[in-house]
Amino acid sequence: MNISVNRRSALVAGGMLGIALCLPAMAQDMKAPTGPVEITVGSGAGGSPDVIMRTIAKIMNEEKIVENPIVVQNRTGGGHSNAYNYVLGKPGDENLLLTLASPVFTTPIVQGTPSVIDQATPIAGFVQSELILLTPKNSPYQTLADFIKAAKEQPGRIRIAGGASGGNDHLVTALLEQKAGIKLTYIPHESGGAARATFLGGNVEGHFGTVAEAMAVIESGEARGLAILSENRRAEDIAKDVPTAKEQGVDVVYTQFWGVAGPPKMDPALAAWWADKFKKASETAAWKDSLAKNMQLGNFYGLEEAGAYFKKEQDTFRELLTTVGLAKK
Amino acid sequence: MDSLNLLLEGFATCFTPGNLAFILLGVLIGQIVGALPGVGPAAGMALLLPLTFGIEPVTAVMMLAGIMYGGQYGGTLTSVLINVPGEASGVMTAVDGHQMARAGRGGAALSIAAIGSFLAGIGACLAVAFVTPLLSSFALRFNAPEYFLLGVLGLIAAASLGSSPVRALIAAVLGLMIALVGTDPVTGAPRLTFDQAALFEGIDFIPVAIGVFGIAEVLSSLERSEDVQPIRTRLRDMWLTAEEWSQSRFAILRGGIIGLFVGLMPGAGASVASMLSYLNERKFSRHPERFGHGAIDGVAAAEAANNSASHGAIIPMLALGIPGSASTAVLLAALILHGIQPGPSLMTQESALVWGLIASMFVGNILLLVINLPLAPMFAALLRVPYVYLAPGILALSLVGAYSATLDMGTVWKSLFFGVFGWLMIKFDIPRPPLVLALVLAQLVETSLRQSLLLSFGSLGIFIERPISIVLLILVATMIALPVWNAIRSRRSPSRAPAAE
Lengths: 329, 501
Known about the structure:
The structure holds 2 protein chains of 2 kinds. Chain A is α/β, with parallel strands linked by helices. Chain A is built from 11 helices and 10 strands. Chain A has a domain at 37-128 and 256-323: D-Maltodextrin-Binding Protein, domain 2 (3-Layer(aba) Sandwich). Chain A is 43% helix and 18% strand. In chain A, strands 1, 2, 3, 4, 5, 6, 7, 8, 9 and 10 form a 10-stranded mixed beta sheet that branches. In chain A, helix 6 (168-180) packs across helix 11. The N and C termini of chain A lie far apart (76 Å). The model of chain A is unreliable at 1-25 (pLDDT under 50). By secondary structure, chain B is mainly alpha-helical. Chain B has 2 domains: 2-465, no CATH class; 466-501, no CATH class. The longest helix of chain B is centred in the first third of the chain and has 35 residues, at 106-140. Chain B is globular, with a radius of gyration of 22 Å. The N and C termini of chain B lie far apart (49 Å). In chain B, 57% of the residues are buried. The model of chain B is unreliable at 496-501 (pLDDT under 50). Classes of the chains: A alpha/beta, B mainly alpha. At the A-B interface, helix 2, strand 2, helix 3, strand 6 and helix 7 of A face helix 3, helix 14 and helix 19 of B.
């Protein structure tokens, strides 16, 4: 009995020594929050940012990576501005995180208000989604080249159904126009689902979907994938036949991304703690499984690296929004 | 009969004590969140989503779907009793339902709403079970041009409410004007926002409805507290009569069918469904003059339509992976969170889950009928309490509802503003439902018109090139021409009875 207790305490001591040895290797001190934590999401329940945050929050709590209960709170409205203004209005708050999705970057540019990411505390970018350009099954376009040729022959006659004006679908359309030197007609919809209905009803020539959305309609035979707007093709058997735009000679790379930030003036030790937790959660089997099921990418950017990554994306958004005439001077 | 076997298997999945308990829990929560103004079924489902993580996916979707259609039953309560529709789909119910409650027939209004919702719900469940693939391909033939014409039909319905067409038109135009504030749906540029961040998103239905119905009602009662009499009907006189039932049964049938078709289109929803079926009922009624003054068939049609629409919205979700409404979007999210990828192959790959869900909707509707029918007279008896005691409760419910819709005080201020606005409308005898309905429809009408013209590169020909669009165009033309024609005819032959319009 005594021996076993001693052995256990020896193990514990050894473990603690191990942790102590690790500490100097870490860049920053870490501080855990106390009490429940709210992750504010600017989209409604069921939107991509909401689903992503609920998934990772569930993993953090279930796998005891974070012991504090995490509540995902939807503060909808104003193109995510209700959500980010709420978080920006609580500098130094230790129990609050903001979900970063493209509207958090684009809404201030469109409305001419100060950038969110320049004020908030970047913590992590941990999930991205590539986009696939689709065309209906009975369309004459077999390749991206066919599609672009048609758009060159009859400028503005090729129609793209997508989500809200100024959203990802709109901006990627603008990027494609820019890089391929073509003019398309963009038809905005109140939601991605409504745009997909327009596309599946055979009313337009093109539509962008995330890999998971696109593969669902490609597999059912409703649509053809013309190009994936990524550096590399997907590795999955079902998706590997969709060529990249780059290999077809059109240099369009555009990835949707999501991340998390703290309020302004967040304690750096707390930000470091969260970055560490998001990193740990993103390495779990459950998260990798979710990435595989939703065909997303799991590139991880933490703290300063995340800040630089978000700022670069913000510059891209500003440039594209200026191109489509939505950036407020 | 393959579907029948799968459905029977679905029932087998349903009839475990655990699943039955969760269906019951779902419909009860739906009933409650539906009755609270501001908290709709979609918000209620989102709130409970994290609680479903520990349970089986099929049980989770059964419960969440229960909240979705349970909300349509619950929404009737506040519409009928206190004239505060919690959701856009409840506005048409309030029009006649509240008049009935004022006259002591609130019990009958709630009963017919429950029966109508039940019958239409079961009908819609049968459609979901047996003709989903067919209906989903039909839904895809509807797009911007058809949505535009449906929206115009709804606007005609809205503008024909109330005693005087001119007053109803004024209200509808005010509603359209309110709807223009916000972000231009096509260019994405802000308009009429006066650089106020609070107006960028536009003015939502919830603060307007809570204001012009709930708060305005309370304000106006302050002026005439002595003449608002509590009803004196005895409890046993509140049941539905045989005559009321025979007036309503075909309204339920027609409302249910219209609701199903409108509900399954991803662009329209339960609110458009209830408006169109109300309009349809009134146009073909032998007593159109009673509509707006407590016509029970109006309540029956609107309630049947909004419930079957909320079931119909499941069809594109199951068959195509496209959510037909805000609630089905949450249902889709629940599937993703449980590791199930929605899409066109859902029904084959997750057949046990899909059929369990469909079977659970039959069970849930039966539970809701059993809950609502005996309680209808009890709830209606609430109006025997003098209004002075009810008013503070209505005010509190309205303001809490406004806050909980967005967790933002801005919505509360907007509700108060529209409360005063609604009070002025009562003063000037301008009907309030057309304002709210036009506000809801404006977005559909504007967006779909501009989408249509983008699709056709600016040509109006798109409205006559598509078969369904032509049919709807003829309907719109008839709806506008009929009252004009009647007016001319009655002027030519003054001996004949004047037409209803």
